[in-house]
Amino acid sequence: MKSALVVVSSLLLLSPLAQSAEMAAGKWNLTVELNAPGIPEEMRTQVQEGCISVEEAKDPEAALRKSWKKDNCSNGEAKRSGNTLSWSADCVMPDTDAETQISGKMVIHNTRHYTSDLTMKGNDHTMKTHIEGKWAASECQE
Fold first, then answer.
1. Alpha carbon 7 to chain centroid, angstroms
2. Is residue 125 over pLDDT 90?
3. Whether 122 contacts 98, CB under 8 Å
4. Which candidate, 94, 88, 53, places its Cα nearest to that of 70?
5. What global pTM score does this model have?
6. Radius of gyration of the chain (CA)
7. CB 61 within 8 A of CB 83
8. Who has greater pLDDT, 142 or 122?
9. Res. 142 pLDDT band, cuts 50 70 90
10. What confidence tens digit (pLDDT) does each residue in 52-67 have?
C-alpha cells in the first residue's frame, strides 16, 4: 500500500511535465473568436491558418518573447506552469504612440491542440480573443 502511494505521488508530480510536452511543428488551423464593442458579428469568428516552426514548437515562451520584440512590446512577464503559459506585456501599437496592455494564457492540451485567451486594453477599449488551435499538417506552405 505504501509503495503504491509513492508511485501515485510520483506520477502526480511528473504529470505536469508530461502535459507540458512541446507542440507539433507545422501548419495549424486556428479558430479565432473576437469579443469587443464595435466588431461586426460576421467578423467575430474567423478561421485562419498559421505556421509554427520547430524552434517555436519546442519553446513557446521563447517564441512569445521574440514576438514581443518584433511587435514593439516591453520585455513583459511570462510564467509557465505545467501545460499552461501565462503572460503580460505593454506594447506600443504600430504607427501610433498608443500604449496597449496585453495579457494572456495558453493551454497546451497535447502536441496537436492548444487554446489561448488574450486580453488587450488600450485607448479606453478592451478586446478579448479566444483561439482554438488544431494541428493540420507537418509542413507549411508559404
1. 32
2. no
3. yes
4. 94
5. 0.78
6. 18
7. no
8. 122
9. low
10. 999 988 888 888 888 8
pLDDT tens sequence across 89-100: 999 877 777 889
DSSP 133: E
Structural domains of the chain ordered from first start: 2-137 (2.40.128)
Q: How far apart are CA 30 and CA 115, in angstroms?
A: 9
- Residue 33 CB contacts under 8 Å (≥ 6 apart), including other chains: 44, 45, 129, 130, 131
CA-closest candidate to residue 128, choices 43, 39, 33: 33
Cα–Cα distance list, 70 to 73, 83, 132 (Å): 8, 25, 23
Separation between Cα atoms, residue 70 and residue 141, nearest integer Å: 23
